[in-house]
């Protein structure tokens, strides 16, 4: 089993959250692998910009999730993945999906709808946590 560490962002603009649509129709949050000498926060900022062309400000760390998946392209195909998530804010709804990564669309979607649209349960849970944290932040 191979270990993989990634980081990503739940990007908020007003009452919307950024989601990316993959070529297979799945809606996901932006995330990617941590590079050498990069913090989790730096990775999350870079990945959001690379995958959706969105510049962000990090508001806070949301936590991490773990899951295991099979990569059929590798001999040692079981991967134990940890993803560190950050609550982020954008100053604009402008976004462009990175086609080279298999994304066909990028949109800021109403918070409640984004929970329904997100493909994976762990991402749904992190979106719900982000909404709760964002609402606390915006009330202060």
Report on the structure:
The termini are far apart. It contains three helices and seven strands, in the order E-E-E-E-H-E-E-E-H-H. The longest helix is centred in the C-terminal third of the chain and has 19 residues. Strand 2 and strand 3 form a beta hairpin. Helices cover 28% and strands 43% of the residues. It is of the alpha+beta class and 140 residues long. Helix 2 runs antiparallel to helix 3. Strands 1, 2, 3, 4, 5, 6 and 7 form a seven-stranded mixed β-sheet that branches. The protein has a single domain, classed as Nucleoside Triphosphate Pyrophosphohydrolase (Alpha-Beta Complex), CATH 3.90.79.10. The radius of gyration is 14 Å and the shape is globular.
User: For this structure, what is the CATH homologous superfamily?
Assistant: Nucleoside Triphosphate Pyrophosphohydrolase
Give the end-to-end Cα distance, rounded to a whole number of Å.
44 Å
Q: Could you spell the SSE succession in H and E letters?
A: EEEEHEEEHH
Approximate shape: globular
CATH topology assignment: Nucleoside Triphosphate Pyrophosphohydrolase
Helix content: 25-40%
Q: Low-confidence spans: pLDDT under 50, at least 5 residues?
A: none
Q: For the record, what CATH class applies?
A: Alpha Beta
Largest sheet: 7 strands, mixed
Number of strands: 7
Number of domains: 1
CATH architecture field: Alpha-Beta Complex
Mean pLDDT: 93
The DSSP helix count reads: 3
Fraction of residues in β-strands: 35-45%
Alpha-carbon Rg, integer: 14 Å
The computed structural class is alpha+beta
